[in-house]
Amino acid sequence: MMNDFAGFALCAAVILFAGRKLSVYGDAIAEKTGLGKAWFGLIMMSAVTSLPEMVSCISAVAVVKQPDLAVGNVLGSCAFNLAIMSLMDVLVPRSKGSLLSQVSRTHILAATMGIILLSMVGWGLLLPHQPLLGWVGVVSLLFLGGYFLSVRLIYLQEQKALQVSGLPPQATMAEPHPQGEFASLTLQEAILRYIGFAGLVIAAALFLPGFADGMARSTGLGATFVGTLFLAFSTVLPEIAVSVSSIRRGSVDMAVGNLLGSNIFNIFVLALSDIFYTPGALLTQVSNAHISSVMAICMMTGVAIAGLMYRTTRKRFLMATDTLLIVLIYLVNLILLYQA
């Protein structure tokens, strides 16, 4: 039992360290290649920070044979991302108002697409049987189509925003880096270091499901709860590292975009997990308790959209009403999962 906890903690620490490095060298690649940083941050960086979820989910279904761990990891990561976004409100000075009042309304599209994709996950969980294409559920194939449609719509929205503002295609939501920050680093060096730290993340994430499965068995908490809480927490560590760093640099849009983009990518991860799960449609093999997480994430995202539109300028205590409500919904869902 202690070995499982120690191994889990060690993997989580490696993911946190490597995740922070990935954000640095990913930013360097975007700058040196001339890629639009808004696009890189919202799509590519969110995909990179979701790398642990992808690897651990595939490992959970293909190696450990625990589909509940995989689904709990994906949904738990989505909920964690929204909870992280809300807790970052504490880092925003009270004089500036709520965190969600500081970011662009363009994030509403990403949040809305997240709700649509999660609603499709709810359908998949409620269907007792699914049509199969080979061994893959048709609903999971719809996830793939929904993900690529979301990416396309977000890209088109960014292009329209740049045209309206009159900025060049390389414009970005992120704050510009100090002059010469990456001057001593060549593109080849940035790519090699990026690949190296990505390898560390993959290696650590491969071992996580095995340790999580041991924790679930030894504690009696069950794969659904352990996957939604412990495994999901460890795999969102890169998002935490990137988002907190962005907030401290004053790049609030990059932090929020990374978290909302990660939630969209997580549904893509769920579809990939079904492809690697050969016994049948993944969502028909897991606990119905995951429906609680789907509903909670949709509610949390809905509150975030309301905050983005209402843009409150008042903060009660350390957090505004909208961000506090998101955290409360998250906690209620954990209680419901624990009792399930």
Any low-confidence stretches, pLDDT <50, length ≥5?
169-179
The Cα radius of gyration reads: 19 Å
Strand order of the biggest β-sheet: 1-2
Pairing-aware structural class of the strands and helices? Answer: mainly alpha
The number of helices is: 12
User: How much helix is in the residues?
Assistant: over 70%
Share in β-strands? under 5%
- Helix-strand pattern: HHHHHEEHHHHHHH
Taken from the alpha-carbon principal axes, the silhouette is globular
Summarize the main sheet: 2 strands, antiparallel
**Beta strand count:** 2
Task: Estimate the mean pLDDT confidence.
Answer: 79
Q: Give the end-to-end Cα distance, rounded to a whole number of Å.
A: 23 Å
Please provide a written account of the structure.
Helix content is 73%, strand content 1%. By secondary structure, the protein is mainly α. Helix 5 (107-126) runs antiparallel to helix 11 (290-310), helix 6 (138-165) packs antiparallel against helix 10 (252-276) and helix 7 (187-219) runs antiparallel to helix 8 (223-235). The chain is globular, with a radius of gyration of 19 Å. The two termini are 23 Å apart.
In short:
By secondary structure, the chain is mainly alpha-helical.
Keywords, please?
73% helix; 340 residues; 12 helices; mainly alpha
List the helices and strands and how they pair.
Blueprint: H1 2-33, H2 37-49, H3 51-62, H4 67-87, H5 107-126, E1 132-133, E2 136-137, H6 138-165, H7 187-219, H8 223-235, H9 237-248, H10 252-276, H11 290-310, H12 321-339
Antiparallel strand pairs: 1-2
